């Protein structure tokens, strides 16, 4: 490429004076060509170029790294001028940012259209109101006024559509923010030779990313280091089998075959998941230039970005020619989803309006949702019957009086009367269906989600809010959830150590135990120290993240590391011993790695000896009793080795005694072991099976790692007990450690004598008792265990899954299960549970993707907060239901009575719409945003069979409805005499849609509205709490503001509504009377709360 053109291209793209040789289209096509390479070459290529792989044409991964100006071993470095000021920005500008824009939000107008016209009831109102306007203007006897009622109905529907659309838009915006928080997770990279954690969106082309089990790959890249790396590519290719990956830097591309998986094995795609092993990759495509980004562009209808690549014209052409890539292949080939994989993509990527992936659980209706559906169906049926009754009776009566009695001829303007009756019938139907309920549910859920995020709960699925509130049991992990996950090596045992140390901080300490790195280094031989430090440094995937001015002698906390916190604590101890673990790793030749698995509870690595190529060493680390069982020898502190079987009886039990003592103090126990293999090269040993590698080991040390219980956990566990929620600990630690932590948390009684049988089980015992020979759960056997079970120790992810499965299937007592998880293998249990909590700090991306709620601080107390807010959602919706059902009962009965007796409704259609739609909207905003009270955790969870309307709620609905209907009926028939005014009980003039407005009927409407305003205060408490105006009322600005707004609007409607609302201005004495009659709802509510009428009624019925 001509230098000037390169410079011009650079300046035109980023303004950076030093352009990169490759463009995003080149790298995108490189990945696509590797993934789709068929080994036959292009039809145009008949020379050697056609036989070369795409990566080889660039000089392999090392040549690619040179073109991207990055060092594979150190990542982006200052020495390579890669992370100098402005270079990261230049990379982002040149290659793009690692961000795929979500689908544009739905417009407000489209949302309004959906609310107004796709809802059957609202659509009926629009049609009837439109016809009413047309008839009112064309054939009505009073065309200047009769169009107003229809116009008011249209205005009401428009405002409700606008409010609903704004609410939906706010919810969509909120979940896009939550989705961004969830998606922009931390990624481990290497920059300037040091490990570093950055956000996913900050990853740039040229970054070296460290990958571990459970990670979701953040961008497209080339593997540069792989250790037993297995990737799930089903989201991109539809293939269910894991794909093994290997390093492209380890071998020459020229050795790859063309018709196998060799080439695909070096490419990692964004969005795929690391299921086994670990490794590193070089990022080559980010954001919309990645295969995932291209796919999303197609799915959303935006087309591929190849057009953008072609638009670069000559720059792209010359760039490709410089690297031996034909100019006739300028297109950017992308992988498109197959039919098999499309269902997997659609819930995760197309539904961007929601916070995250939609799982099978989300499609299931929650108990509350099903109850609301049944209630809406019932009220709809009742509303249809009442609406038809009102329309038929009023029409029949009008027809008889007009044509049979008065002998009037038919006139076109008489249609207004029938239309008015039909509009009133439709209005009754609108009232009968609680249209404000969906808005209340949406507001309650959105408010709770927002508040839960402030309390470190990131809700991925809306239904999880309500589900968490009714949880009856929590299956919780120990590490990081009940404990702080700030691990530190507290005890190191080497046989034959300092036996003078017997006490520390009031705890008995095993003989031969060291309390610090210094004491161990001083007492142990150089061989023991070297083997100890090498075994930890090499057999680990974690990294310590230190300040630039760190001191090697400074104690380092595991919280400053990336990766497994147990490994971070061990690396910190090695550093405290004065050993640079990175230097040890850099000089080690690793031949084979056995990654950690929850089933084996250990990990091993095979390292070649630096002195003899026919000698190698196996380092093993894992659960103390598991690794110890594989040992035949034990390392003495002086460097000598003893045969375990040859030791006397007192010494034989030294190791197991140490494990028990460490575990009884709540320490996690780790055993380090090694084995020297002579006469075999590391290559030969790497082919051995796992059992042959991990046998005849030498026990080097037993380590006790301290992980303190979070100070707030005991109180949170006690709160769960009061709330009727059983907490069960599921941990991989041994039984003594688990029991010690469980007692500190309050899960188990502090008095061992009070423990019931089967309160504590280990994984093998659990499996032996509840699984059959095929590994299937035997529910009858499980039901004998679970009521007493509180701690499941030495458990595997499969044990957690079977525990959740058994609790969900039990018929003894209905259970609603919440479970926590952080590992990739926890994903099945997280999906199986009614609500899954993933760890936000130490959890893998796979676990987060399978969860419903992410604990941003990994704290058990946050689960209690989720339960509290979930119960508040249920209660908030119940409060609104109590309010609206009272309105529905009074409005429907009053309209029906008026239509039958008076041939008119005391409350007009527009007035009913105001009370039912506008006031209900404000009420939903006020009642659905109430803060949860501490008393929510003083009651048991609601069972699924719990009626939506409790007996106490029915008592208040019936009491208030009877009172309001009675008073309004008396006002309708005797109000004119009470106030000394002209009666409003007049028949509409022939040809007019409704009778004229009057003070009489205005008083009826005003009193009705004020009754609802004061009853709204009553509905703040649905459990018969005496004080409804506690301090939480005055701190709820939304409630106060919404209530005052309703008061202001009611005054404006009555005083200035005129013919639009069929109102006449009232005198101040009439206002006081209306407010006083409405305020009677408060003492009535107090009376109803004080009298347990619901108990008398139902007890009498039962008797």
Describe the structure.
Residues 186-299 form the P-type ATPase A domain. Keywords: ATP-binding, Copper, Copper transport, Ion transport, Magnesium, Membrane, Metal-binding, Nucleotide-binding, Translocase, Transmembrane, Transmembrane helix, Transport. One of its GO terms (molecular function) is ATP binding. Its EC number is 7.2.2.8. The chain has 1103 residues and is of the alpha+beta class. Among the domains are: 24-34 and 53-98 and 203-289, Distorted Sandwich (Calcium-transporting ATPase, cytoplasmic transduction domain A), CATH 2.70.150; 108-183; 457-484 and 711-858, Rossmann fold (3-Layer(aba) Sandwich); 488-545 and 560-706, Calcium-transporting ATPase, cytoplasmic domain N, CATH 3.40.1110. Strands 10, 13, 16, 17, 18, 19, 20, 21 and 22 form a 9-stranded mixed sheet that branches. An 8-stranded mixed sheet has the order 8-28-27-26-9-23-25-24, sandwiched between helices. A hairpin with a 2-residue loop joins strand 1 and strand 2 (194-199).
The CATH level-2 architecture of the domain at 488-545 and 560-706 is identified as 3-Layer(aba) Sandwich
* Rg calculated over all Cα atoms: 37 Å
CATH C-level class of the domain at 488-545 and 560-706 is Alpha Beta
Q: Return residue spans where pLDDT drops below 50 for at least 5 consecutive residues.
A: 1-17, 38-50, 251-261, 303-363, 499-509, 548-556, 988-993
Gross morphology is elongated
Total strand segments: 28
Helical region count?
A: 44
The SS-based structural class is alpha+beta
Can you identify the CATH superfamily of the domain at 488-545 and 560-706?
Answer: Calcium-transporting ATPase, cytoplasmic domain N
Subcellular location: Endomembrane system
Domain Cation-transporting P-type ATPase N-terminal: 58-132
Domain P-type ATPase A: 186-299
Enzyme class: translocase
């Amino acid at each position: 490429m001509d230098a000037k053109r390169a410079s011009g291209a650079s300046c035109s793209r980023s303004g950076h004076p030093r352009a990169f040789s490759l463009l995003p289209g080149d790298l995108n096509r490189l990945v696509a060509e590797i993934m789709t390479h068929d080994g036959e070459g292009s039809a145009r290529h008949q020379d050697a170029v056609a036989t070369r792989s795409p990566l080889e044409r660039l000089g392999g991964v090392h040549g690619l790294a040179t073109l991207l100006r990055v060092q594979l071993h150190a990542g982006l470095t200052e020495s390579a001028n890669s992370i100098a000021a402005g270079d990261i920005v230049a990379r982002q500008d040149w290659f793009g940012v690692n961000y795929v824009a979500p689908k544009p939000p739905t417009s407000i107008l489209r949302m309004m259209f959906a609310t107004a016209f796709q809802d059957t009831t609202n659509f009926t109102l629009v049609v009837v109101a439109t016809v009413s306007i047309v008839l009112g203007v064309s054939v009505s006897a009073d065309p200047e006024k009769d169009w107003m009622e229809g116009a008011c109905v249209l205005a009401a529907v428009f405002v409700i559509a606008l409010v609903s659309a704004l609410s939906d838009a706010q919810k969509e915006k909120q979940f896009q923010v939550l989705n961004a928080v969830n998606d922009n997770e931390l990624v481990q990279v290497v920059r300037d030779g040091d490990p570093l954690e950055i956000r996913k969106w900050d990853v740039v082309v040229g970054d070296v990313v460290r990958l571990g089990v459970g990670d979701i790959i953040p961008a497209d890249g080339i593997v540069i280091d792989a250790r037993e790396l297995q990737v799930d590519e089903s989201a991109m290719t539809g293939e269910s089998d894991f794909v093994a990956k290997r390093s492209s830097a380890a071998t020459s591309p020229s050795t790859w075959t063309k018709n196998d998986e060799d080439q695909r094995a070096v490419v990692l795609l964004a969005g795929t998941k690391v299921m086994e092993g670990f490794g590193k990759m070089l990022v080559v495509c980010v954001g919309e230039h990645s295969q995932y980004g291209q796919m999303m562009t197609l799915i959303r209808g935006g087309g591929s970005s190849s057009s953008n690549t072609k638009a670069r014209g000559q720059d792209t052409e010359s760039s490709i020619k410089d690297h031996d890539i034909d100019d006739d292949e300028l297109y950017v080939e992308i992988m498109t989803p197959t039919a098999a994989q499309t269902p997997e993509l659609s819930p995760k990527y197309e539904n961007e309006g929601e916070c995250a992936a939609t799982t099978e659980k989300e499609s299931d209706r929650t108990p509350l949702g099903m109850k609301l559906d049944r209630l809406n169906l019932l009220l709809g049926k009742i509303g249809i019957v009442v609406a038809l009754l009102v329309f038929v009776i009023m029409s029949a009566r009008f027809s008889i009086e007009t044509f049979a009695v008065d002998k009037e001829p038919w006139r076109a303007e008489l249609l207004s009367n029938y239309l008015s009756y039909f509009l009133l019938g439709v209005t009754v139907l609108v009232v009968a269906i609680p249209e404000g309920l969906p808005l209340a549910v949406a507001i309650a859920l959105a408010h709770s989600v927002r508040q839960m995020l402030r309390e470190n709960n990131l809700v991925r699925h809306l239904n999880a809010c309500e589900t968490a509130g009714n949880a009856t049991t929590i299956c919780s992990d120990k590490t990081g959830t009940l404990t702080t996950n700030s691990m530190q090596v507290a005890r190191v045992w080497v046989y034959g150590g300092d036996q003078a140390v017997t006490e520390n901080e009031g705890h008995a300490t095993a003989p031969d135990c060291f309390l610090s790195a210094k004491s161990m280094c001083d007492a142990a031989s150089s061989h023991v120290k070297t083997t100890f430090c090498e075994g930890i440094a090499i057999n680990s995937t974690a990294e310590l993240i230190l300040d630039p001015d760190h001191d090697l002698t400074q104690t380092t906390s595991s919280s400053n590391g990336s990766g497994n916190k147990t490994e971070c604590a061990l690396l910190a101890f090695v550093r405290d011993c004065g050993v640079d673990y990175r230097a040890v790793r850099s000089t080690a030749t690793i031949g084979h790695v056995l990654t950690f698995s929850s089933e084996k509870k250990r990990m091993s690595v095979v390292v070649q000896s630096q002195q003899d190529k026919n000698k190698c060493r196996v380092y093993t680390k894992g659960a103390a009793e598991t690794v110890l069982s594989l040992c035949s020898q034990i390392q003495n502190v002086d460097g000598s080795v003893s045969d375990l079987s040859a030791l006397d009886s007192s010494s034989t039990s030294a190791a197991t005694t140490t494990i028990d003592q460490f575990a009884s103090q709540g320490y996690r126990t780790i055993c380090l072991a090694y084995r020297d293999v002579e006469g075999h090269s590391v290559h030969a040993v790497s082919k051995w099976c796992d059992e042959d590698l991990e046998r005849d080991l030498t026990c080097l040390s037993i380590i006790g790692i301290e992980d303190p219980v979070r100070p707030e956990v005991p109180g949170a566990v006690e709160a769960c007990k009061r709330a009727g929620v059983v907490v069960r600990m599921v941990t991989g630690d041994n039984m003594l450690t688990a029991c010690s932590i469980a007692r500190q948390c309050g899960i188990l009684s502090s008095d061992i004598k009070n423990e019931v049988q089967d309160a504590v089980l280990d994984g093998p015992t659990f499996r032996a008792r509840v699984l059959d020979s095929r590994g299937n759960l035997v529910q009858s056997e499980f039901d004998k265990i679970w009521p007493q079970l509180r701690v499941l120790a030495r458990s595997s992810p499969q044990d957690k899954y079977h525990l959740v499965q058994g609790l969900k299937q039990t018929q003894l007592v209905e259970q609603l299960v919440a479970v926590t998880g952080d590992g990739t293998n926890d994903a099945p249990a997280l999906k199986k549970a009614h609500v899954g909590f993933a760890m936000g700090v130490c959890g893998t991306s796979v676990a987060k993707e399978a969860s419903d709620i992410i604990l941003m601080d990994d704290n058990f107390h946050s689960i209690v907060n989720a339960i509290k807010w979930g119960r508040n959602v249920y209660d908030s919706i119940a409060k609104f239901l109590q309010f609206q059902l009272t309105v529905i009962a009074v409005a429907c009965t009053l309209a029906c009575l008026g239509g039958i007796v008076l041939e008119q409704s005391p409350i007009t259609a527009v007035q009913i719409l105001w009370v039912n739609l506008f006031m209900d909207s404000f009420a939903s905003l006020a009642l659905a945003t109430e803060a949860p009270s501490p008393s929510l955790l003083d009651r048991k969870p609601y069972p699924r069979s719990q009626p939506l309307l409790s007996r106490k709620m029915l008592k208040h609905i019936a009491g208030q409805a009877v009172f309001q209907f009675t008073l309004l009926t008396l006002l309708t028939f005797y109000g004119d005499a009470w106030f000394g005014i002209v009666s409003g009980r007049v028949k509409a003039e022939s040809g007019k849609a409704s009778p004229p407005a009057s003070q009489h009927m205005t008083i009826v409407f005003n009193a009705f509205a004020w009754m609802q305003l004061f009853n709204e205060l009553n509905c703040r408490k649905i459990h018969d709490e005496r004080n409804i105006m506690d301090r939480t009322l005055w701190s709820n600005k939304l409630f106060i503001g919404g209530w005052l707004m309703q008061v202001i609007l009611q005054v404006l409607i009555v005083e200035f509504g005129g013919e639009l609302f069929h109102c006449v201005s009232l005198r101040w004495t009439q206002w006081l009377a209306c407010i006083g009659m409405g305020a009677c709802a408060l003492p009535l509510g107090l009376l109803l709360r004080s009298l347990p009428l619901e108990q008398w009624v139902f007890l009498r019925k039962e008797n």
